[in-house]
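Researcher: Can you fold this with pyridoxal-5'-phosphate in place?
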Amino acid sequence: MTDFSEFNARYQSDLTDAEFETLAVRAGQVRTPECEHSEAIFPTSSYVFNSAAEAAARFSGDVEGNVYSRYTNPTVRTFEERLAALEAGEACAATASGMAAIYAVCMAHLKTGDHLISSRSVFGSTNVLFEKFLKKFGIEVSYVDLLDINDWKSALQENTKLFFLESPSNPVIEIADIPAIADLAHQNDVLLVVDNCFCTPAIQQPLKLGADLVVHSATKYIDGQGRCVGGAVVGSFELIEPVIGVLRSAGPTMSPFNAWVFTKGLETLSLRMKAHTENALALAQWLEQQPNVTKVNYCGLPSHPQYQLAQQQQSMFGGVLSFEVKGGREGAWKVVDATRMISITANLGDAKTTITHPATTTHGRLTDEERERAGISQGLLRIAVGLEGVADIQKDIAAGLNAL
Ligand SMILES: *Cc1c(COP(=O)(O)O)cnc(C)c1O
């Protein structure tokens, strides 16, 4: 294998104490002797060896180096090292999607007879994975109220192995007390897994708050411009190693092209999350003043029940909010249909603002009772605030709101 170490010595600055913004731009890059300034892409499925002996040594693992891109790829490794640095984790495993990340964590850290406790308000496909597939292999799953630590406590069983949560939750933006749930987990030899998709490490670093593993859908804010599907798991070497084992055998690893897009996404992550937050806060404050809006859910508003907690564990408030309008489903649909710029889609984490009616899309399969318990009324709309001028976003929403 070409040894680039001497060539790279010029750029081996010590990033141990580097700031987040520095790591986002510099961590993980390995330059080739071609002297490229931007990160190289290695779109190759396999790698060649200089001799039969070298092939044997690399296959056996005696000599480190690439063998096949389902196992390792230099572009993917750059993304993994950069994201690990940003999440303050020892190791990262990139995956084909956010769901592949969650799947790999479950396969690596659960077995038949184990018990998983999840917050009730998790992403729809996460719920399907737990209900339809984990249960098929004899893994028990319980759901609890994200905000109620006693609910987590009373759901504990002898065989509980994993806690899973998202914070802020979708679509009503509840904020979990991550340190408190982590303490409860560790008192009971349970691992805490946090889906950090809504915040990204630019806003919240769950490992520093006590979580054991962080999962990401890189598809959202890490890409930031809606181009690629991907995911990642971050944590200690010890906990990531079995996840890598699952990925290498089962195969849902990240493609080098996607890894390159996500690596470049990380470079602007901090700037983008600031701009998303600024726009979302301005929009939330404006929505609170609108006579046809009955409620606004955004953790950056002092009216939010976990406003203090959000300030403690997040450095910013993020780009996602939801609000209720007068007139129930009919009113909500009118607001959606009156928009001309905002994209009607359930996606989030994009430069383009999106709007969705959770009760009839992302949460349409829940029963009325389940929706009511989750706070998802027929009049609720979720906005993932993009990077357009906020006055234009307001204008687009005002069109429908003012006609109610
Ligand atoms: C989108 C999303 C996922 C799933 O990620 P994919 O990349 O679509 O597989 C998981 N969790 C959350 C919170 C998400 O928003």
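Model: Folded with pyridoxal-5'-phosphate in place. The longest helix spans residues 269-288.
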